[in-house]
Amino acid sequence: MTADQPAPAAPTSIPELLARNARAFARRTAYREKEYGIWQSWTWADTAAEVEALALGLLSLGLAPGDHVAIIGRNRPALYWAMVAAQRCGAVPVPLYQDAVGDEVAYVLEHCAARFIVAGDQEQVDKVLEVQEGLHTLEHIVYLDPRGLRKYDHSRMSSYADVQARGREAQGALLPELRARTNALGYDDTCVMLYTSGTTGRPKGVVLSNRNIIETSRNSAEFDRLTEREEILAYLPMAWVGDFIFSVGQAYWCGFCVNCPESADTMMTDLREIGPTYYFAPPRVFETQLTNVMIRMEDAGRLKRWLFHRFMAVARRAGPALLDRRPVPARDRLLYRLGEALVYGPLKNTLGFSRVRVGYTAGEAIGPEIFDFYRGLGINLKQLYGQTEASVFITQQPDDEVRSDTVGVPSPGVEIRIADSGEVFYRSPGTFVEYYKNAESTASTKDPEGWVATGDAGFFDEETGQLRIIDRAKDVGKLASGALFAPKYVENKLKFYPNILEAVVIGAGRTHCIAMLNIDLTAVGNWAERNNIAYGSYQELSQHPQVLAMMRDHVGEVNASLAHDPMLSACQVHRFLVLHKELDADDGELTRTRKVRRNIIAEKYADLIDALYSGKSEIYTETEVTYEDGRKGRIRATLKIQDAEVVGSAERMAAE
Minimal CA–CA distance to 580: which of 629, 634, 645? Predict the structure, then answer.
């Protein structure tokens, strides 16, 4: 469909939304990309032309309706265009995680029977070529960045620019066919297929329709009053459903601008230059930014430190209330205005948050102190709860009703019920069509009435009516005593500390809980530098006596907090160790979205778990690791096991 065709009554596909935007917002900027330090821009009219040229080129290569087109690389406008170009041809885009290793890429390509792949650069092409012998359906690779690829065999490979040029040359012959395919797209036809993270097994292909994406995008955009004037930074994996909704669904529904950073290394600089109005980040990003702020303040002069701490106390006290339009004493209002000029404004500018009107975090629980820090600055940070199968949104937090311990109310159009077991179920316009080639899993997840089992345990808060999530339902278990065991709840409390990057808590069927921790090398490394502590490696720093003492304090504080929770006081951590390596997706310990693979960790670190429960004070271990170039190796270490301070339960404390 092109800009000169009449507008449909209501858009029923992403390509129709693109055509509408090319008419309604023709000269508004749709995409920006920073390359070689310079921002380049494309309007909606430019975008429609770029997409059409690529779609025609793909038709000339033989792309058929229903084919799957895999897309892998960092966030770039041309790769987003590739998704829409595939849709215009009646094909299905399948974005992959750019940091996926060869075997993971091979699984997805073979499972979806992809005939074409659009790869961002030489690194991604090499991954495909490495596993191509096992791929029975892949016919052609289209690469975006030609650097390093000149001497490759091009019999089954073309540059993105060449495919577009080929499409423009064939426009006269192929445009009628392209228009026919685009016009044939229905509301219930497949829009995209996204693979789950594969926490417990192989990733599943989640089929999402145009109806799923468009209605979810419309409802969520109206909830937060998003308009064509928003600016977002597209930096999260293109294979993640959140990025697809924010950077494609909502962007095309509203007509706002998607900005792609130059690289992960320049992301913070690019964030400041763009100044997004609508922003999403997982808790770890907000935690890292706060850690960097606190490190910088430790190195600042005495007056600057005093001003920061003085006015941040005002921000914690008055900021969230002002944001929620609740009453605040006149003195605090005055101090807050002064703090805005001296501290909050400059700090938001440094972080790139000066223009954020709506901010979201999701994926894991965020620490109340961290959440309140950003809201104290006047940033409208909120939490949402969602999953791939819901097209992201299950709940959202309304303005003026934001809390750190809940995830909000049902998003528009979403129904939620809590089963007797405590598991959360929902149904909505965003509910996925099916798991591709997996009818059994589809039936076990979604019932005939459309209710989807989230796999999470939760309840509605009586005071606010908002949903609270406890843990993954399958992970909620019992200790040997019969007391409730919710590992993720405890892990999130531990990860609230910037010094702790990752935590794994074990205790189901056991007499007590134990934990394995990862230090955050940036945070702990800076702490070590300030305290004149020398170290030669991650492994050495992780076992330093003062680092272990710091971790012991953090675990003790979490235990003290748990002691006051009558449901989860038995989940206190009795013993722990700090791992000698970071848990890594390349080693199979985490998913690409950084979710813990508990079964793999329990098997891989069985010797450490046995040592924690047997009362040993240290354990020697050898662990296989995967290096950046794909080679395997082994690292050896002697880990020191720590006893944590366990606090009596709330009832026992009251009795005493």
Answer: 634
Domain of 184? 14-279
Could you tell me the CA-to-CA distances from 251 to 7, 158, 233, 244, 567 in Å, in that order? 19, 29, 11, 9, 43
The CA distances from residue 564 to 85, 560, 647, in Å, are 55, 7, 9
121 — phi, psi (to 5°)? Answer: -160, -170
Q: For the segment 138-174, what is each residue's pLDDT rounded down to a tens digit?
A: 999 999 999 999 999 999 999 999 999 999 999 999 9
**DSSP string covering 39-68:** EEEEEHHHHHHHHHHHHHHHHHHT--TT-E
Task: Kindly report, residue by residue over 227-276, the tens digit of the pLDDT.
Answer: 999 999 999 999 999 999 999 999 999 999 999 999 988 999 999 999 99
**Identity at 423, one-letter amino acid code:** E
CB burial string 386-409: b at 16+ within 10 A, e below = bbbbbbbbbbbbeeeebbbebbbb
Q: Evaluate whether residue 380 is within a structural domain.
A: no
Cβ(92)–Cβ(193) under 8 Å? Answer: yes
Place of tokens 């104290």: 376
Q: What is the CATH number of the domain that holds 607?
A: 3.30.300.30
- On whether residue 83 sits in a domain, the answer given is yes
Q: Give the helix/strand (H/E) hosting 80.
A: helix 77-88
Q: Which amino acid is at 328?
A: V
d(CA 77, CA 79): 5
Nearest 10 degrees: Cα torsion 613, 618, 623, 625:
110
- Please report the pLDDT score of residue 546 as a whole number: 95
How many CA atoms, within 13 angstroms, populate the side-chain half-sphere of residue 404?
16
Task: State the pTM of this model.
Answer: 0.84
pLDDT bin (cut points 50, 70, 90) of residue 115 is very high
Contact between residue 549 and residue 524 where contact means Cβ atoms under 8 Å apart = no
Domain-embedded: residue 298: no
Q: How many whole angstroms separate alpha carbon 175 and alpha carbon 165? A: 14
Check whether 651 has a pLDDT greater than 60: no
Long-range contacts of 412-416 (CB under 8 A, 24+ apart): 412/219, 412/220, 412/222, 412/223, 413/215, 413/216, 413/219, 414/390, 416/467
Q: 600-605, long-range: CB within 8 Å, 24+ apart, which pairs? A: 601/504, 601/516, 602/506, 605/516, 605/579
Domain presence at residue 121: yes
For position 462, what pLDDT does the model report?
86
> In whole angstroms, how far apart are CA 133 and each of 127, 139, 152, 600?
12, 12, 16, 28
Residue 241: which of 114, 95, 110 has the closest Cα?
95
pLDDT at 6: 46
Distance CA 508, CA 417 (A): 27
> Would you say 485 and 515 are in contact if contact means Cβ atoms under 8 Å apart?
no
CATH assignment at residue 21 = 3.40.50.12780
Among 230, 259, 279, where does a domain finish? 279
Residues 429, 227: Cα–Cα separation, whole Å = 21
The identity of residue 270, as a single letter, is D
Neighbours of 534 (CB within 10 A): 9
Query: For 582-648, where are the alpha helices, taking DSSP H only?
Result: 598-604, 606-614
Residue 350 clears pLDDT 70, i.e. is over it: yes
Residue that finishes a domain, picked among 279, 314, 330? 279
When divided into structural domains, the chain yields a total of: 2
Q: If DSSP codes are grouped into helix, strand and coil, which group holds residue 90?
A: coil
β-sheet bridge partners, residue 325? none
Facing residues of 396 across strands?
A: 384, 409
